[in-house]
Amino acid sequence: MEYSFRKAHIEDVAEIWEILQHAIRRRKEDGSNQWQDGYPNPAVIENDIKKDAGFVLTEGDIIAGYCAIFINDEPAYADIEGQWLTNGDFVVFHRIAVAESHLGKGLAKTILGAIEEFAKDRHIFSVKADTNFDNGAMLKIFEKMGYVYCGEVYFRGAARKAFEKVLSAS
């Protein structure tokens, strides 16, 4: 089946929220503290969509995954304990989640590939992201996809591992 990557629509919020609720539960079952404090929530998703930052990976009419993508918009990244690989424009993504029905198909990597294409289409060659220290699945994906550990950033009082991937122009 073909997957498509598109901007999320406000009518997608309920389906996206269901996907995120399952991801929140999986984080907890994995022993992670990530997303166990009421974030993200439906208001966060709605805000992503209103800012044109919410994106979905679809299989036909079914939403298989979600993420939020921003350009040069992550204030916490200015205060990294460490050093980014680049200092220019960057794309940052947050809240990657794959639907329960689509787990084990490598779709998180598919979403990251779509984010990298999003960046290159805008002539931006840096993708930055962060994750919890105990999110083993995301840490493995970063490693497999060529992201480089750059240091720590802080969100809501907690340290997170920060990564960057420099993209080639081709």
Describe this structure as you would to a colleague.
It is a single chain. This protein has helices at 13-29, 42-50, 107-121, 136-144, and strands spanning 3-7, 54-59, 62-71, 81-82, 91-98, 126-131, 148-155, 158-166. With 170 residues, it is α+β, with helices and mostly antiparallel strands. A hairpin with a 2-residue loop joins strand 2 (54-59) and strand 3 (62-71). It has an 8-stranded mixed beta sheet. The two termini are 27 Å apart. It has a single domain, classed as 3-Layer(aba) Sandwich (Aminopeptidase). The longest helix is centred in the first third of the chain and has 17 residues, at 13-29. It contains 4 helices and 8 strands. 29% of the residues lie in helices and 32% in strands. The model has no long low-confidence stretch (mean pLDDT 94).
Features:
Aminopeptidase, 4 helices, alpha+beta, globular
Summary of the model, kept short:
The chain is an alpha+beta fold. Helices cover 29% and strands 32% of the residues.
